[in-house]
């Protein structure tokens, strides 16, 4: 075959096609997580406990509301990052942190969510000292 310039065209590079033929296609869609990939609530509870202990054990309840806001925000970010480091693939992680001043009064907290009981779960833990109460919860929702 002769090209427009009157010469013989170069052979097309088929090395990419040859490489692609060696690939094996695997479906990555999973309806449910495998046992190894499932969120582990006990490990998450331990993670929450360690973050709350290391951050709050030597603290007193801040007098300024902005300090409390920043402390709660930093706790939520730390917990979420450490949870992400545990590599629970395909889980949406939501962290909720509630903190208050310890004055002898009780507090009640509740959460509701529409989820799949077989693959979605949560873990929570609390911290108490003389001036602070803090509750943190991790909600793990599997991405289909």
Automatic annotation (TrEMBL):
CDD domains: DLC-like_TCTEX1D2
A GO MF label: dynein intermediate chain binding
One GO cellular component term: cytoplasm
GO biological process: microtubule-based movement
InterPro entries: Tctex-1-like, Tctex-1-like_sf
PANTHER family: DYNEIN LIGHT CHAIN TCTEX-TYPE PROTEIN 2B, T-COMPLEX-ASSOCIATED-TESTIS-EXPRESSED 1/ DYNEIN LIGHT CHAIN
Entry similarity comment: Belongs to the dynein light chain Tctex-type family.
Name this protein carries in UniProt: Tctex1 domain-containing protein 2
């Amino acid at each position: 075959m002769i090209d427009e310039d009157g010469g013989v065209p170069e052979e097309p590079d088929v090395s990419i096609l040859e490489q692609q033929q060696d690939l094996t296609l695997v479906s990555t869609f999973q309806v449910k997580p495998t046992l190894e990939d499932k969120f582990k609530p006990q490990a998450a509870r331990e993670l929450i406990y360690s973050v709350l202990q290391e951050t709050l054990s030597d603290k007193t309840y801040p007098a300024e509301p902005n300090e409390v806001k920043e402390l709660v925000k930093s706790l939520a970010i730390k917990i979420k990052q450490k949870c992400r480091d545990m590599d629970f693939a395909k889980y949406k992680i939501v962290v909720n942190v509630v903190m208050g001043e310890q004055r002898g009064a009780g507090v009640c907290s509740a959460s509701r969510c529409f989820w799949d009981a077989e693959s979605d779960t949560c873990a929570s833990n609390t911290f108490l000292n003389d001036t602070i109460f803090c509750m943190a919860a991790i909600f793990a929702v599997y991405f289909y």
